[in-house]
TrEMBL record, chains A, B:
Family named by the database record: Belongs to the cytidine and deoxycytidylate deaminase family. ADAT2 subfamily.
Protein's UniProt keywords contain Zinc: yes
Membrane-spanning intervals of the chain: none
Superkingdom, taxonomy of origin: Bacteria
Gene name for this UniProt entry: tadA
InterPro entries, A to Z: APOBEC/CMP_deaminase_Zn-bd, CMP_dCMP_dom, Cytidine_deaminase-like, MafB19-deam, tRNA_aden_deaminase
Designated name of the protein: tRNA-specific adenosine deaminase
Gene3D superfamilies: Cytidine Deaminase, domain 2
Binding-site positions, Zn(2+): 56, 86, 89
Domain CMP/dCMP-type deaminase: 5-114
Length: 152, 152
């Protein structure tokens, strides 16, 4: 049965990037930064490949988009990611002035948006994006569940 | 009058890096990663120069140390930074498995260690370093105060 609405293109692309990360032996998470519907930057989880503790999909995509735009602030840009961002990535999203955050699966263990520190609700938070969760949730969580099941 | 104890070498170096950032027109914050007392990676705030929303001193130092070590986990390493880390950097410190965090000035506006989300006290937090604040606090906060006063 087809889903009632097709997934938006950027989230479909983020899921493709998550699958590519898995093939490379990384935790399957993908992210895309868009401006006015066009993709400005892409990222997959690259911790192991790049030997970089900060190389989550969101950070990779934000850095790529900022380089492309020539500005450390991505004002008016949106971020699409397959999993709820962790505190590191939520902080980076705020620093980058992302306008809208779309994410797939919630992450009860490591998420920082709708659980744990709920960073965008903290009074200290200088910039809060609009947040839309659950887009492509089924695909994103199946990818992650299969990845961790295969490693147990 | 000389201070009662000399500052440890890594914090003196972090303050030098903060001064170098200021000369380059960046917010004056510096960081150093050490292993067994030897410097593995250094960082200064580079947001504007690198056009990178994630280029805080801590992130730059963690990435440099991980590249040098050839591992995305910096187990047993210490991080020295002139200002209390923000949520993004606190998250990265946790992902990198930093053993001890030494910081200078507290940051009531943006800090995530002893105020705001207090990330290392969150039950979700998978790795908490030992934390020592206030080392070189006077020098670090004077640098920041002068920087922002000159821009008003």
């Amino acid at each position: 049965m087809a889903p009632p609405f097709p997934l938006p293109g950027p989230m479909r692309r983020a899921l493709e990037l998550a699958r590519a990360a898995e093939l490379a032996g990384e935790v399957p998470i993908g992210a895309v930064v868009t401006l006015d519907g066009h993709i400005l930057g892409e990222g997959e989880n690259r911790n192991r490949r790049d030997r970089d503790p900060t190389a989550h999909a969101e950070i990779v995509a934000l850095r790529a988009a900022a380089e492309r735009l020539g500005d450390f602030r991505l004002t008016g840009c949106d971020l699409w990611v397959t999993l709820e961002p962790c505190p590191m990535c939520a902080g980076a999203i705020s620093h980058a002035r992302i306008a809208r955050l779309y994410y797939g699966a919630a992450d009860p263990k490591g998420g920082a948006i709708e659980q744990g520190p709920r960073l965008f609700t903290q009074p200290q938070c200088l910039h809060r994006p609009e947040v839309y969760g659950g887009l492509g949730e089924a695909e994103a969580s199946t990818l992650l569940r299969d990845f961790f099941a295969a490693r147990r």
